[in-house]
Amino acid sequence: MAAKFGADPERVTVFHSLSKRSNLPGLRSGFVAGGPKSMAEIKRLRATAGAPLPNPIQAVSAAVWADETHVVTNREQYFAKFVQADHIFAGFQGYDSPEAGFFLWLPVNDGEATALSLWREAGVRTLPGAYLSRTVAGTNPGQNYIRVALVAPIDEMTTGLKRIRDHLQ
């Protein structure tokens, strides 16, 4: 069934999460919206593979969904973090400031080896890019990257990014 303007609601399914919106990844609270057929399939899947949210988590989630002020504050904080990252990695070979998000993808020779050495020698945890992509035709597009999460408070993040930069140079 086509909606107004010819858009088909079955062609889009939208997932929202407090993990990204409110910087609450451990809460595991979100929702999905889509067309009636898509939602029937989600409901069927959820009945066998979903985990119910405890009442206290539901109460906290409802309060957080109702508040937009913290969302604006989070966006401002991430903007400041990216400005700081751009300053720290200015001139760094292959650094490209993302347009949005929570992560930096830094080019390295071997993501897994680099992540391990950063942890052992610089005390900074990153994730090998290959862990977040898959090998196709013998090539893994994330192999030569590390993913750096910009989720810590800005002072801690700044220290961590400087350690990464100094370790990689």
Can you walk through the features of this model?
The protein has a 3-stranded antiparallel β-sheet with strand order 3-5-4, with helices on one face. A two-stranded antiparallel sheet has the order 1-2. 45% of the residues lie in helices and 13% in strands. The radius of gyration is 20 Å and the shape is globular. The model has no long low-confidence stretch (mean pLDDT 92). With 169 residues, it is an alpha+beta fold. α4 (69-88) packs parallel to α6 (154-168) and α5 (111-122) packs across α6. The chain is built from 6 helices and 5 strands, in the order βαβαααβαββα. It has helices at residues 18-21, 36-49, 55-65, 69-88, 111-122, 154-168; strands at 13-17, 30-34, 103-107, 127-128, 145-149. The relative contact order is 0.11. The termini are far apart. The longest helix is centred in the middle third of the chain and has 20 residues, at 69-88.
